[in-house]
Amino acid sequence: xxxxxxxxxxxxxxxxxxxxxxxxxxxxxxxxxxxxxxxxxxxxxxxxxxxxxxxxxxxxxxxxxxxxxxxxxxxxxxxxxxxxxxxxxxxxxxxxxxxxxxxxxxxxxxxxxxxxxxxxxxxxxxxxxxxxxxxxxxxxxxxxxxxxxxxxxxxxxxxxxxxxxxxxxxxxxxxxxxxxxxxxxxxxxxxxxxxxxxxxxxxxxxxxxxxxxxxxxxxxxxxxxxxxxxxxxxxxxxxxxxxxxxxxxxxxxxxxxxxxxxxxxxxxxxxxxxxxxxxxxxxxxxxxxxxxxxxxxxxxxxxxxxxxxxxxxxxxxxxxxxxxxxxxxxxxxxxxxxxxxxxxxxxxxxxxxxxxxxxxxxxxxxxxxxxxxxxxxxxxxxxxxxxxxxxxxxxxxxxxxxxxxxxxxxxxxxxxxxxxxxxxxxxxxxxxxxxxxxxxxxxxxxxxxxxxxxxxxxxxxxxxxxxxxxxxxxxxxxxxxxxxxxx
Length: 487
Description:
It is built from 17 helices and 14 strands. It has helices at about 1-10, 15-35, 40-45, 55-65, 90-105, 115-135, 140-155, 165-175, 190-200, 245-255, 285, 325-335, 355-365, 370-385, 415-425, 450-460, 470-485; strands at about 75, 90, 155-160, 180-185, 205, 230-235, 255-260, 270, 290-295, 300-305, 320, 395, 405-410, 460-465. It is globular and about 90 Å long.
């Protein structure tokens, strides 16, 4: 249609046929490089026939509705089809609308719309392919995704499952961990961390965290090891790799398994221990795993593809990674009711398959993850620069390989909750991850001592808006409001 309109216009102005074709081709090429083209399946277009006066207008309007709520149509045509109540804006109104919208637009803690818009044509093709193929459970896209993600992470096996929680549960079971065992982990994490340990019949043993990294403090692990200890489960919280060199050294010393909770850290890589650690800069310890993806360092890695994650599906999803053939075979069996082949169940398992549509979506997104993570790091660095001299604010530690699933500051002197409220009043989203350490949750009430640093940080942490496409202007506005709210 665009090609036809360009050629018709040029010919009407006196251009010859060959010149019109050349200009139309180059213009189309430029448009395709700079814009995403809306599509409208024939089945949807068919319902408009006989119900509207201007079918072309109606098709454009219907195609625009696929963008969701955040769109308008730019046109001078005051008689444009209004059947679908599509918002219309004239060129003269566009700047006013844009400026007004930008000035008054709330800032959420996460905005997935830019990513969705940029990937829409690829996502539509991927979904159409799955629908036409008809293999919605364990279809070919699942295997392809497993192969691609294993290559990206540098692991031998990747087993796609229904959620990050299931990845932890099945990962523990595949390692043979169960009743009577103890698993050392952090109290400062989402409940799925401890829940998975309890679900398999083992007992979570909590070790307090390092206030610099928000991750488990490796210097306190050995004191918690008993004859019942079977594994260590570090969490790479907020996308910050845990102190894996120290954790591996302890695990090897006591013959313990290591299962990494990578739910918030897809694409993160381990390069060094935190500044101040006795292991920092020690090549004998760090070099063997330097640059490795988290989830490829321990015996098992467990990932979540919840929509808000750095690599997120459009529903639940998870992944188990391992280099061990026996663990991979066991995990693959456990995700499908404990069966290697259909109707031949060998153990009690789970219904935990990643559906084909989610796998197709994740395949579209995977090639972009490095750029997205780099953009998050740049946004985090800019926040740190803006907040570096603000009294009462502690900014997160920047280390190579951090992927900033969350940008989490500490608000000192008991001002966190009041600050969050004032930000909300100004339309700025924020979240508290996590207001209650796992050991203090009702499900574990009275079973554990309190952990000083985890308890303290649960009263101080505040996560500010961050996503790959967040504009520096938005970040500057957020920090300006934050500083004003503290004064």
